[in-house]
Design brief:
Distance between the termini: 60 Å
Low-confidence stretches: none
Helix content: 25-40%
Mean pLDDT: 88
Number of strands: 34
Radius of gyration: 26 Å
Strand content: 25-35%
Strand order of the largest sheet: 3-2-1-4-11-12-24-27-25-26
Largest sheet: 10 strands, mixed
Length: 682
């Protein structure tokens, strides 16, 4: 087990969370304009004299910069260089219609304007053989025209380059002198399906200037931080990629598309490490912050897929399988055009934030919690961040008047509408994929996750909610436990599973060489590298595939089980040979470094006694109920407590409804258990 980083940092839309290896934590308001400033300020605040004279300080952090840029459309202008005859490929996309009955369908994402697309004379056939050599002079002339038209980055997308990347690589060399970032499709996603590969390369190019500036700014702030802390070397910073692996700053600047789910990936790592036990291996996660709700299903480990859809953009990059919806503590409540109550997806963010922040913000989910008594202003961030309850009441009352509702009814309605969005997301990753949520535990974290978890569990028929320690900073804690990770792939179009099995080692060998070269600059010894092989499989005639572990033994059974889980059937009993009826579309090799040590959990001095701090009045199902307030640090492990209750800690608040009990496990995870309904006597 490797020594872990000194600090983990999760830069969210509302707060930036910091966790140290010694267990200390800190939350600071995020700064969308200067995110690097907040990062260095937080590290300086947490670091102390013990680091003076240290040779190295290691920081790993997740960022929402790439995600927010895609969601808001604040991307760089990209010049697209594409094979002659395929100028409109990104415009055409696929035949799939997300909104079947929409009479005015819009493209899932805005393709590049035609003035920023140039066709390049070159052509490979489907086998990767050169049909028309690359016209280097025409390429340079076209790229120069794109730069003069305002292109801030270039994307090179040539047909069949997944078979043979010779033309794309040569184009990258020729254009390296233009002073623009260049994104090469075959270097990012060397797989078939041109639309998805081109979309990935185009998106990567549109993010490169933004992430390049961020990395440059962050690097410029590290020497002053070194001097301030008295270090003998510049702090080493890595960024968490979407596949839950650590990347260097330089790699992040070159491949920013791999950061689109950076923050949520840390939460998934933290949830698995903080809630899974020998008997608790089926988890659904709820990461709820100020802007969004990120949900994932973990059935035995971290779920990683190799395609995702972000704001309508298909991306071919490995990512933790997280589904995101616009519902969080800062989600704005309003009256919609039809006169009904609506919540989100717009968020009040960090500034002005909810009305409770006292900066003139709108009514939000957080304000509804305060009005209902479910959040206590004196305990928010340990009392360091003052909340304005009167402002919350005014915002909810104003909203209730417009809806002709009582204020408390309106406040409960805000929570219920927000929870419908969250529950729909949880159903999408469970029921829609063949999983019964009643067999899972719901792991709640993020600043607002434990406020809603019990209500969501009840709606899904789940009986157990787990709130890990330091729930509001779990993503930052998870980032400290991320491994160095890289992945390489190659398409095997037209190959049967049986033929690939016979040549497994030979086919994997070039992938392994690529990964070993990629890890040459990482501090990972060859003996500490763990390799995993996966195969994308499908039945002959299908157009989409399923990724399963490819260990040689039991691969067919794993594929059949996965197919049955997802679609309700498999074709194991077909008359022809099953091995010949299964196609292997791609092989994937993943290498991971050693597992870092978990950060210590430094439990502050426990208050004397585990009695409730106070009682307060909370509203549950339209009724005011006397509710006990507990300090999480004072709870005794193994002792059962009854709801209704509110459990407070520095980074989060847990709401325990009247029909739930709770206890603290030895691991310091807080577990809420729903009481079985009493049967009525006939």
């Amino acid at each position: 087990m490797a020594v872990g980083p000194d600090f983990g940092v999760d830069a969210g839309g509302t707060f930036t969370d910091f966790v140290g290896a010694d267990g200390r934590g800190l939350k600071l308001p995020s700064n969308a304009l200067e995110p690097a400033t907040v990062l260095t300020e937080g590290i300086a605040a947490l670091a102390d004299a013990r680091f003076s004279g240290a040779s190295q300080l290691e920081i790993v952090h997740g960022t929402t910069i790439a995600t927010n840029a895609i969601l808001t459309g604040q991307l760089a202008r990209v010049g697209l260089l594409i094979t002659a005859g395929f100028r409109d490929l990104l415009q055409l996309g696929r035949q799939a219609r997300p909104e079947l009955y929409d009479l005015n369908p819009q493209p899932p994402f805005a393709p590049p304007p035609r003035r920023l697309i140039e066709e390049v004379p070159e052509r490979l056939d489907a086998q990767g053989k050169v049909v028309l050599p690359l016209d280097e002079e025409a390429l340079l002339h076209s790229a120069t025209k794109l730069k003069s038209r305002g292109a801030e980055a270039l994307a090179i997308c040539f047909l069949h380059s997944w078979r043979n990347a010779k033309h794309e690589k040569r184009a990258g060399v020729i254009l390296s002198g233009l002073g623009l970032p260049v994104s090469i499709s075959a270097a990012i996603a060397p797989e078939f399906r041109e639309f998805e590969r081109f979309s990935t390369a185009y998106t990567n190019a549109s993010l490169m200037p933004l992430l390049g500036r961020y990395v440059a700014e962050l690097k410029s702030r590290l020497p002053p931080l070194q001097k301030q802390l008295g270090l003998t070397a510049v702090p080493r910073v890595s960024i968490l990629a979407s596949d839950a692996g650590r990347s260097s700053l330089d790699e992040a600047a070159q491949l920013p598309v791999k950061l689109v789910l950076s923050g949520p990936a840390g939460g998934v790592i933290g949830a698995w490490r903080g809630a899974a036990t020998k008997t608790r291996r089926k988890l659904m996660t709820l990461d709820l912050g100020g802007t969004s709700a990120d949900v994932a299903l973990l059935d035995g480990g971290e779920p990683i897929v190799h395609r995702c859809l972000i704001a309508g953009r298909p991306l071919m990059v490995p990512v933790v399988d997280v589904h995101t919806v616009g519902a969080g503590g800062g989600s704005i409540a309003r009256k919609d055009r039809g006169g009904a109550l609506a919540v989100g997806p717009a968020s009040a963010g960090a500034d002005p934030g909810p009305a409770a922040y006292g900066r003139g913000g709108p009514a939000t989910v957080t304000d509804a919690h305060l009005v209902l008594g479910r959040m206590l202003p004196g305990h928010f961030l340990g009392g360091d961040f003052e909340l304005d309850v009167d402002a919350s009441w005014r915002s909810i009352e104003q909203l209730s008047v417009s809806l002709n509702l009582e204020p408390l009814v309106c406040a409960e309605g805000v929570l219920q509408v927000a929870e419908v969005t969250m529950e729909r997301a949880l159903r999408r990753i469970s029921l829609e994929r063949g999983h019964d949520p009643r067999q899972f535990s719901l792991v709640a974290f993020g600043g607002a996750g434990a406020l809603h978890a019990a209500a969501l569990a009840r709606g899904l028929g789940m009986t157990e909610v787990v709130v890990p320690r330091d729930a509001g900073m779990l993503s930052a804690r998870g980032m400290m436990q991320a491994r160095v990770r890289r992945e390489s792939s190659r398409s095997m179009l037209g190959k049967t599973l049986s033929s690939v099995e016979k040549n497994r080692d030979r086919l994997i060998a070039p992938l392994r060489r690529d990964l070993d070269r990629a890890l040459a600059h990482e501090d990972v010894a060859k003996t500490d590298r763990e390799y995993e092989v996966f195969a994308d499989l499908r039945y002959r005639g299908q157009s989409h595939e399923i990724t399963v572990p490819f260990r040689g033994v039991g691969t067919k059974k794993k594929f059949a089980a996965a197919h049955r889980q997802l679609f309700g059937f498999d074709q194991s009993d077909i008359s022809s040979s099953e091995s010949d009826f299964i196609e292997c579309v791609a092989l994937r090799l993943r290498v991971s470094g050693p597992q870092p040590k978990s950060p210590r959990y430094r439990r502050p001095p426990t208050p004397k006694g585990d009695k409730a701090l106070q009682t307060t009045m909370c509203v549950f199902d339209g009724k005011r109920q006397r509710t006990s307030v507990f300090d999480r640090l004072a709870l005794r492990s193994g002792k059962n407590y009854a709801g209704p209750a509110i459990v407070v800690e520095y980074s989060a608040t847990t709401v325990v409804p009247p029909d739930f009990d709770f206890h603290l496990e030895a691991s310091q995870a807080l577990v809420l258990t729903r009481r079985p309904k009493k049967r009525r006597r006939s």
